[in-house]
Amino acid sequence: MEELFDKPREECGVFGILAPEGENVARRIYYGLTALQHRGQEATGIAVSDTADPASRIRFHKNLGLVSEVFSPDILENLNGNIGIGHDRYSTQGSNTVENAQPMVMQYYGGYLGLVHNGNIVNAPALKKDLMSLGVCFHSTSDTEVVASLLARESTQCDTVEEAVKRTASRLIGGYALVFMSGSKLVGVRDPLALKPLCIGRAGSSYVIASESCALSAVNAQFLRDVKPGEIITITPDGIHSDFIPKADREAHCIFEYIYFARLDSCIDGIDVNDARIRGGRALAKAFPADADIVAGVPESGLAAAAGFSIESGIPYRSVFHKNSYIGRSFIKPTQEERETAVQQKLGLLSSSVRGKRVVLIDDSIVRGTTIRNLIRSLKNAGATEVHVRISSPPFLHPCYYGTNVPTTGELIASAQSEEQIRLMIGADSLHYMRIEDFRQMVGELPLCKACFDGDYPTEVPEERVSR
């Protein structure tokens, strides 16, 4: 069902845990992945091992589907080990096949290796070509296998897995959060730009690495801190060790974590996601007020911004959509009529809340414009006299190359249409987007990647990656 909604999507969620010997961690990984399910709904997987026997084979299970669909109690019971990693996948590079599902598990020079990855490596095609010239074979189309193969290659020249990870990460360009498991070690890496989030927590004597702090809460782990830009965190039964790959010239935290991707109850790089979205809504109300009776948000990511718009404007906030949580996923519908029917099944309209009202409708983004047009039509059919749209992000003008599925420029409605043309196309009485300068009201002085809005990419993008 997620495919039906006109939204950018995050690629993946990663999770890793090392517990004292004798404790099985598969169930805790399951809960952590469930908390990160919003980051990827196409495939999931868990891999575990035992630090008491570092040379033992890694046991794993992965498949297409949601966490609750892929893992049964019997499967979890058979995944015995006190060190493990897990992954939720949404594919931006590589098709949605079991071969591309993670964790990626392989035998290498030092034993067995497991890897989970969030993000895109923009120089992966060049790295893959180099590895293939050395005789390395590939069985998937994802960037993750390139990283795993590069690490396996580097390990033949290094004394420790940490050294091999450092050499590998130093060759990667892009946005990434990586979690490796090898023998008795759990290793997490965050890209030097800090494009992708990664944090560390502790539950008793267990250490956890996860994409978001909400996953730490799901396993009763205390948040310790965010992984620093370019930091390599190594966790063993003896504790935590930190190292760094070469520092980038800048940091570029993905603004869409705060606008859309992250869960409301997460805190990323010291910024509470819910508070950031409320501040974004307040900034919208200051810049683009509306003469209206109620403010409403599109579930789920438009709700906090709508609350902020209401607070700042003094216009009452009302729930006008009911999201049906029991509608499952489906493939893209073959006809427009079926697409619209599926959207109506997902979001029910509370007609009495809008009848005879002038509505300010808040959403986080417009990519192609199809979903917001259908929602405006539904509101007016239910008796709304006016619908004023406010978007808590600027217009999408450029694709993303770092793991966010913002499509090619030709598919972005704002790249070819003016704001007034878009307003007419979607049927809104007025339309305004957040201004780029108002991001400071959301996240303060946090250095950002906002290339999908202004084209200022924080890395070079190789020609083979460029989308037009």
What would you note in describing this structure?
It contains 17 helices and 23 strands. It is of the alpha+beta class and 468 residues long. The protein has 2 domains: 2-251, 4-Layer Sandwich (Glutamine Phosphoribosylpyrophosphate, subunit 1, domain 1), CATH 3.60.20.10; 274-445 and 453-465, Rossmann fold (3-Layer(aba) Sandwich), CATH 3.40.50.2020. The strands form 6 sheets. Strands 3-2-4-1-10-9-11 form a 7-stranded antiparallel beta sheet. Strands 5-6-7-8-12-13 form a 6-stranded antiparallel beta sheet, covered by helices on one side. A hairpin with a 2-residue loop joins strand 5 (104-108) and strand 6 (111-121). The radius of gyration is 23 Å and the shape is globular. The model is unreliable at 1-5 and 329-336 (pLDDT under 50).
